[in-house]
Amino acid sequence: MKKILLLLACVSILAACNSNENKKGNLHLTGEIKGLKQGKLYIQTLNDTNLVIVDSIIFDGDSKFESHLYIESPEMLYLFLDKGTTKSIDNSLLIFAEPGKMNLETSLELFYKDAKVTGSKNHDLYMDYRKINEPFFQQNLEFIEQELKAGKLQQQAVVDSIQKEKDRALKRRYLRVVNFAKNNKDYEISPYVLLYDINDIKLSYLDSIQSLYPEKIKQSKYGKELKKWIDERHQTEE
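The structure assignment produced for this chain is given below.
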């Protein structure tokens, strides 16, 4: 009888431990925003087209923070820092989160620019992806500036020429994104960039890359969303 009671007690303790772990979640995010004494950090996730707050952290004298979250699979989190000033611009940051331990180190003055995130392979790849796109974004800004000048001077031939260059640059960027998605098919960043950056590309490209995904990626948040998007496009375009 004593052995049975002891066994039941052990089971109860294990169940309580598991319950506490579930409450804490599977993502432990720690960090520091150097120079921040007063403010509030909002951690948000994108649900359909709406940002939903999953945690909010109040800073009152201590610049360090921690948060326990639950995510079903690696996904992008949207961080917004309320510095208490209306003219603040550098106050938003994207983190590609993964279950486990992650850390964010940044500063109050340059919240976005100074951000260093560790503990997520998907976030490392996301940073590489941003570097791939930066030259194209810069080039596009130059195209827009040239178009505005030519438009003011009513140089339609120049405007048309610039538009052709923009189209060619866009195709090159799309191909870079496709190659990035293929090369990183084992990570959730792959369906993410297809969904949120080039979801209007030819269906044949999306079908081809989606077929390469291992089951883990297909069953992830962005893997499922990509499959849904592909199916919807097939229904409307065929």
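Interim note for the steering committee: The longest helix spans residues 121-152. The chain has two domains: 26-118, 123-237.
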